[in-house]
Design goal:
Strands 7, 8, 9, 10, 11, 14 and 15 form a seven-stranded mixed sheet that branches. The protein starts with 8 loop residues before the first strand and ends in a 9-residue tail after the last helix. The protein has a domain at 152-344 and 377-416: Chloramphenicol Acetyltransferase, CATH 3.30.559. The chain is an alpha+beta fold and 425 residues long. 35% of the residues lie in helices and 23% in strands. The protein is globular, with a radius of gyration of 21 Å.
Length: 425
């Protein structure tokens, strides 16, 4: 699924209130080594050259921990530029696919940029792994999984069975013919042409938002009968619409699709790897009214929650993954033409965490974009607040901060429409 213009690397940033040394980061990296994947590399096996994991006999931790300095007095803009540069830099395949980059001087403390290839883990399993580096690993909010919980052993048995092909078949039959469901996915039209679509380059951009109080988001959702996720996705839709209009692109009545990963793990499954499906979520970016836009997103989310789309796409990609790389890339590109962005929302710790005694001020991550998608949107909650992360192709969207600003404006509009202006953090 990787392409030189879209590397499949998950990138994250942790900022600290106090300085860290390279020796400190090395100590943190040593905690990762309890997981075999962090000492294994990918090798080609057999006639077809299928990838497999192999212990790296020449493993050297110093090849995975390095320092990256910013100009004197540099602030967030410089750190965002560094993140964008690292997003465009491939990880070396002759070693385990991860790196920690220490920025020793950032604000009053330090920052650490984490890069881990998506083949090591998906975001749902990676967040708990990274947070186990904390001095006291936090209890994370439950991650939503497809389907209803039915309690106890039966729930775990069913969840584990998600990956049995028979379960995939049953899920599709529950809503009709498998062929009809797959045809419905493949028959989706390509997304309309906008500044977010076009030939990609290798240069990337990254930005993140100021924190928004999670209680403010919950308050809006409660008033309108929507979830926190509904509110945030609606706000992203509004931000995209604002961005398009500001650049002279007609947005009225426009609907764009986002590829949204759906967790298919059992509630007690914390193993590394990739166990997620995907759905195509229509984003009503052309709705000028914030409340109508939220209701439209909620309706769309309620539909995809009842749909077998996630498990079907998981099954399709898994099936193509057992064939040739060419066929897998073809499948990814066909599906990618039907969307404009990748969008994900991951719950982080509810309480502040500390690494080696240093308080973590902020956590942000960026989801990689597969195929020919040039926009990635990530939402992460931490310590009672949520932030938006935007990753873009520099050719298409050279100014991701404009999207971030539009996100704040769209949320303020939604919140104000219901009688209260969000309080500054």
């Amino acid at each position: 699924m990787e392409h030189p213009t879209n590397l499949m690397t998950i990138t994250a940033v942790f900022t600290f209130a106090e300085p860290l040394s390279l020796a400190d980061v090395r100590r943190l990296a040593e905690r990762l080594l309890r997981y075999d994947r962090f000492t294994e590399r990918v090798v080609a096996m057999g006639v077809l050259g299928r990838p497999a994991w192999e212990r790296d006999a020449a493993f050297d931790l110093d090849r995975h921990v390095c320092a990256a300095s910013l100009p004197d007095g540099a602030g967030r803009d410089a750190l965002e530029a560094l993140v964008g540069e690292l997003m465009a830099t491939p990880l070396a395949y002759d070693r385990p696919l991860w790196q920690l980059h220490l920025v020793p001087v950032f604000a009053s403390g330090s920052a650490v940029v984490v890069r881990i290839h998506h083949c090591v883990a998906d975001g749902m399993s990676l967040v708990p792994v990274l947070l186990r580096l904390a001095d006291e690993p936090p209890v994370l909010p439950p991650i939503a999984t497809r389907g209803r919980a039915d309690g106890g052993t039966e729930r775990r048995r069913r969840a584990r069975g998600m990956f049995d092909p028979r379960r995939l078949v049953e899920a599709a039959r529950a809503s009709g013919s498998i062929a009809t469901a797959i045809a419905g996915i493949l028959d989706l039209r390509a997304d309309p042409s906008t500044p977010f679509r076009g030939p990609l380059g290798r240069e990337k951009r990254a930005a993140w938002s100021e924190p928004i109080a999670l209680d403010d988001v919950k308050r809006v959702g409660k008033r309108l009968g929507a979830t926190v996720n509904d509110v945030l996705l609606s706000t992203v839709s509004g931000a995209i619409g604002r961005y398009l209009r500001a650049r002279g692109t007609a947005a009225d009545g426009v609907t764009l699709r986002a590829v949204v990963p759906v967790n298919l793990r059992a509630p007690d499954d914390v193993a590394l790897g990739n166990k997620f499906g995907m759905v195509f979520l229509p984003l009503p970016v052309g709705h000028a009214d914030a409340t109508a836009r939220l209701h439209a997103v909620k309706h769309a989310m309620d539909r995809v929650k009842r749909s077998p789309e996630a498990v079907l796409i998981f099954g399709l990609l898994r099936a193509f993954g057992t064939t040739t790389t060419r066929l897998l890339k073809l499948a990814v590109n066909v599906l990618g033409r039907k969307a404009t962005a990748v969008m994900t929302n991951v719950p982080g710790p509810r309480e502040p965490v500390r690494f080696l005694g240093r308080a973590v001020d902020m956590i942000m991550f960026w989801v990689p974009q597969s195929g020919r998608l040039g926009l990635g949107v990530s939402i992460l909650s931490y310590n009672g607040h949520v932030r938006l992360g935007v990753a873009t192709d520099a050719r298409l969207v050279p100014d991701p901060q404009a999207l971030v600003d539009a996100f704040h404006d769209a949320f303020a509009e939604l919140h104000e429409a219901h009688g209260e202006v969000p309080q500054p953090v």
